[in-house]
Amino acid sequence: MSCDIEIDINSEIDIIKENNPYHVAIIMDGNGRWATNKGKLRIHGHKAGIESVKRAIYFALKRKIKILTLYAFSRDNWKRPEQEVISLLDLFMSALEIEVKNLHKHDIKLRVIGDISCFNDNIQDLIKYSEMLTKNNDQLILNIAANYDGRWDILESVKKIAQQVHKRLLCPNQITEDDLISNLSTQESSSVDLLIRTGGEYRISNFLLWQIAYAEFYFTNILWPDFDENAFDIALKSFNLRDRRYGRILPNE
Q1: Shortest CA distance to 18 belongs to which of 246, 252, 239?
Q2: Domain boundary among 168, 184, 200
Q3: What pTM does this model have?
Q4: What is the pLDDT at residue 187?
Q5: With CB atoms 3.0 to 4.6 Å apart as the test, which of 30, 101, 163, 247 could cross-link to 223 if both were Cys?
Q6: Which residue segment(s) compose the domain that 198 sits in?
Q7: Backbone φ, ψ for residue 141 (5° rounding)
Q8: Does 29 show up as a binding residue in the annotation?
Q9: How much of the chain, in percent, has pLDDT values that exceed 90?
């Protein structure tokens, strides 16, 4: 784990494209505190956070990262003040309406993971349209986690498997990890290589619990609206300094 690892951007340690993480997930934390620090309402922080989302997406394209998963709205976020929730959902819909054509133009496949049935019909229809429009794109898979949490994801996968067993399509003793993975909301983009959390907190907040089993964690005090290309670059450099063992011992140990 790392917190604001200091790496000289001009050092000899360059990012090697082949070693870049295939799948990066980000817990985008700190919008509210960013706004409070500036004497503004929290919604101004969320609006600034949208700009950071755009930067992160196009930086991921630039660095040839293939999958980017962003934690936009957790199932626990419904517990926030009603007006903030309404503002968040309005902002989500507005940003999606404006940006979906840009995503398509840049060959980005958009997927919204989470229980979208709790959203109003307009949001659901926009999500379905956006996913349909971009479904054949392959430069980057962009997963937006909305009304999502990791326990829910695993539970839903188990329910789907149970239905297959009930219909005699699958025998209990034949159930494998691949069965569970294929029924997760992330599907084709299951395993996370690098998990980044901004905002100075050291927890994973019920995000992608199955998918981060072997992920490298990177924590930074930078608040999400201030997370720019330089900050993302440092996170990738930190990742490239890690030895990913997967339980093995390296030859020189």
Answers
A1: 239
A2: 184
A3: 0.89
A4: 84
A5: 30
A6: 23-148+191-241
A7: -95, 120
A8: yes
A9: 86
